[in-house]
Amino acid sequence: AHQSKLDFFCKLGYGKQDICKVLESLGQEALEDDVLKELIRMGSKPQALESQAQPSPLKLVARGSCSTSPGSKWLGDDDSDSSDHLRPIVIDGSNVAMSHGNKEVFSCWGIQLAVDWFRERGHTYIKVFVPLWRKEPPRQDSPIADQHILEDLEKQSILVYTPSRKVKGKRVVCYDDRYIVKVAYEKDGVIVSNDHYRDLQNENPEWKWFIEQRLLMYSFVSNRFMPPDDPLGRHGPTLSNFLSKKPVLPEPKWQPCPYGKKCTYGNKCKFYHPERPHQAQLSVADELRAKIGVPPSLGKEEEKRNRPP
């Protein structure tokens, strides 16, 4: 299968090196269409066309390809700037780790799962805050699982330790929640935690609004990090809009009225009536008057007369 695909794309004029690279990344079972799309995305162009293009002033390009210099530059920019529209992510490491460890163990794997979830979405600014004492060997009263993950994340400049020290044998710990909220607020990002930070909300009214609007809660379902699809409730933004700096508003989809033409709600009806193009302007009574040909003003005078004092 590998050889037949290699031959097929070689006949199209693509270089063996590029084809092998794409097949490695997509897997040997990848469809030919997907391989072709990836070759085009890479900016690879058939060598035969390239050699023909050199002498002539107009450059020949594979059909559907964006391999002219402005096009490839634009594609490159798009890849590098894909994170520009995504909000920075600040993760409450202790909260996530304890949630994954069922509130009994500080599970570092939970932090890794959360980081991977945001990475896959394209977020480039991800910071995890964990108290420094979590670096120490685990004690019986505070067990830690997969502690090496913290070291790996620290090397990648994702994990940040909040300061702590020992004074006369007692541990003095700086409040890590303050770091989390402060950094997320300054970066205009999102806080990932199931904590509500009520003490910090009461301390600073600006932080209160920020925590209410930018706190992303989550669950772990069979080692899968799952934030809700509606982080601010049923009437709030979708998850993708919540994590985006430039939210995309959905087009309003009007639901047709179940009563159709028999509806008697008039302009108070919240449903869509295709037979009433100006439904917001006319009540049912006015519609009937319009059909008979009575001016609305006359109808209203009659209503006033018939109305008891």
UniProtKB/TrEMBL annotation:
<comment type="similarity">
    <text>Belongs to the ZC3H12 family.</text>
</comment>
<dbReference type="InterPro" id="IPR021869">
    <property type="entry name" value="RNase_Zc3h12_NYN"/>
</dbReference>
<dbReference type="GO" id="GO:0004521">
    <property type="term" value="F:RNA endonuclease activity"/>
</dbReference>
<keyword id="KW-0863">Zinc-finger</keyword>
<keyword id="KW-0540">Nuclease</keyword>
<dbReference type="InterPro" id="IPR051101">
    <property type="entry name" value="ZC3H12/N4BP1_RNase_Reg"/>
</dbReference>
<keyword id="KW-0255">Endonuclease</keyword>
<feature type="domain" description="C3H1-type">
    <location>
        <begin position="251"/>
        <end position="276"/>
    </location>
</feature>
<protein>
    <submittedName>
        <fullName>ZC12D ribonuclease</fullName>
    </submittedName>
</protein>
<dbReference type="GO" id="GO:0016787">
    <property type="term" value="F:hydrolase activity"/>
</dbReference>
<dbReference type="GO" id="GO:0003729">
    <property type="term" value="F:mRNA binding"/>
</dbReference>
<keyword id="KW-0479">Metal-binding</keyword>
<dbReference type="Pfam" id="PF11977">
    <property type="entry name" value="RNase_Zc3h12a"/>
</dbReference>
<dbReference type="GO" id="GO:0008270">
    <property type="term" value="F:zinc ion binding"/>
</dbReference>
<dbReference type="GO" id="GO:0005634">
    <property type="term" value="C:nucleus"/>
</dbReference>
<feature type="region of interest" description="Disordered">
    <location>
        <begin position="61"/>
        <end position="82"/>
    </location>
</feature>
<keyword id="KW-0378">Hydrolase</keyword>
<feature type="zinc finger region" description="C3H1-type">
    <location>
        <begin position="251"/>
        <end position="276"/>
    </location>
</feature>
<dbReference type="Pfam" id="PF18039">
    <property type="entry name" value="UBA_6"/>
</dbReference>
<dbReference type="InterPro" id="IPR040546">
    <property type="entry name" value="Rege-1_UBA-like"/>
</dbReference>
<keyword id="KW-0460">Magnesium</keyword>
<dbReference type="InterPro" id="IPR000571">
    <property type="entry name" value="Znf_CCCH"/>
</dbReference>
<keyword id="KW-0862">Zinc</keyword>
<dbReference type="GO" id="GO:0036464">
    <property type="term" value="C:cytoplasmic ribonucleoprotein granule"/>
</dbReference>
